[in-house]
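Page 42, continued from yesterday. The earlier attempt failed because a stray header line got pasted into the input along with the sequence. Redoing it now with the clean sequence only.
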Amino acid sequence: MATKRHPRYTFKKNGVYYFSRSVPKDLRHHYCSDRLVESLKTKIREQAALASKVLSSRLDQYWFELRLNENDVPLAQFLANSTKGIKQNKLPTLNEALELYLKLKGNNRGRNFHIQTTRSIEYFVKATKKKALTDISTKDAANYRDWLVKKGLKMSSVHRYYSGVRSVLNFIISEYGIEIRNPLLGVYLPPKTDSDKRCSIKGDKLELIQQKCVKADDDIRHLLALISDSGMRLGEAVGLLKSDICLDHPIPHVCIQEHPHRRLKTTSSKRLVPLVGISLWAARRILASENTSKHCFPRYSNDTQVRAETASGNFSVWFKANISKDATVHGLRHGFRDRLRDQKVPTEAIDQMGGWSKRSVGAGYGDGYSLEVLHEFMKRIDTQT
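This time it went through. Structure tokens are written below.
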């Protein structure tokens, strides 16, 4: 008597039927495995056959929809308002799209923004060999992701380069009124689990930095000292005008506000920060300097741009040579928050002084803490008292 074969796409293990089916090669970038295996939770052949048939049919339907979505719109070349219906010479190439994006979105953005976005497009073209917008598909997006991963980049860098291309495409789709979905949307990106944790600078390291700043007493160390006890972002400090420093007020403070040459990161970034400790010393030295420019740091800032990346690079070299290999200028901002937290300063006050985004709806109500109250909080971390 002939032995009955197992139903299609099934096998038995310990008497239980399992469903097993290979993922089509053109769809494997959607899955983490090339084969799908699932217990059917039955030992009865007829039930396994029915379950396998239903599951297989649903997979076929899902894969059919995935393939349609790869092309965004079926037979899109016949649509009058689709990219396939628009003549190629009416749409920019990726490089032209990049040029327009940087022209319109790159104003008052740092040099690093331009370099990062340009490199993102260059990588995409190299990975996919695609230069025309109409040729880009979701599959190209997945291939680009895989190319970045195989390149050995950290996952945080993969996200950054991927989002660079996605932003350019979003911009062009909107600017040209193209009725398509951005093919880089919806593609899975592994989580960023490899980002380096910033070293928080406080205690002995902070004291050493401030001592060296006072000893050097030059414009570069004035910038570093100003940041050390104020929690300012480097870009915020570099772009300061002398008029932003208010020493004739009963409470010496700095006014962080947007200027034509320097934008702020968030709406919460606009704020008043009381000056204490070495930051107050630095502010006095800046206004007393022989620098005749209206800019506090003309070495890094002028009426058209702020070169925070250059300052950051210079500080990176200085930190490695004078403090430690893992110390960065941004570590001062991390340390600023830790120091206030250790002194039991309310989180809302810390967020307000550091220009961090409000963490709750309630935090957005009212005008926030007064300058007088913030000054009392700041005196708790005054390193000179």
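Notes: The first helix runs from residue 45 to 70.
Reminder to self: strip header lines before submitting.
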